[in-house]
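Could you help me review a protein record that somebody else here produced? My question to you is simply how this chain folds and whether the tokens agree. Thanks in advance; the entry in question is below:
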Amino acid sequence: MRVLVAGGTKFVGRHLVEFLLADGHAVTLFHRGQTNADLFPEAARILGDRDDPPAELGSRDWDWVFDVSCYTPQAAEHLVRLVGPRTGRYVFCSTGSVYRRQAVDTPEDFERIPTTPENLDGPQGVAYGARKAAAEDVVMGLGPQLGMEATIVRPMLVYGPWDPTDRFGWWLHRVRAGAVLVPEGPQGMLHQIYVKDLARIFIAAAKAAGAAGRTYNGAATRPVGLMEWIETASAVLGQQPTVRTVSPATLEAAGVTGLPCWTKGDPWTTSTQRIQAEFGFTSTPFRQTIAEWYAHMEAEGRPIKEAVDPAILDRLMA
């Protein structure tokens, strides 16, 4: 296939491009050339900014366009207007943050954050979800008008190699360091998706004839809680870390407002029935994902960002 990837050199897009190239597709990357610009020398490149995309993008025929670098409706419109008349299927990377509230087993037709001016320009978390929701509307509304099929994928929190946020990686780091801080109460985690599984979902969304005009949650078929993360990481790393449980009040008193990906009460999950039924998707066994990721972390040798001040962590672990 003739494939355009908007982004493709950082995290999610990087894995997607690896899969596409391995499958023999003719891949062109559209990005600014500022992040990992030397990656994938076998892929073609069109350099430019989404706010003023180069006309060359609209002069070619694309079987698939994967948009993994869009955060505003304006950016979506610029690219869709340009490539829409000559694109077969456009797969847009949205987010689970478009849903109006956190719920259990959230289906794709659950109410989204209203795309009001107050939300679009509101606090960071609200604005992120509202802008992605507005971008979805552009893709689904404008794309078909231009003769282009459109599909939305809404990932939950993504983990795995090359993750620049270190949200989940911090827990592996703490297990490796031998000291893990755990809040009292329900040990929930936000629903996650292994980055390689997400790339597989994107490609399935491009291939499936019935996916045109459809929206899909992108999440692991089996949510994993915090203690399973710690226990699995301990087994994979061959570690027996000290696990210290403290109350949320103690955390707050110490200046710790939260821990990465941990959530109080019921976990926030999305339904995966649609990707299972329509794509035959099953997520990679959890232990395998941790083993692959840890091997990558060891090879990369990059220090993990600290989610808690080390001095505070030492005091709470004492």
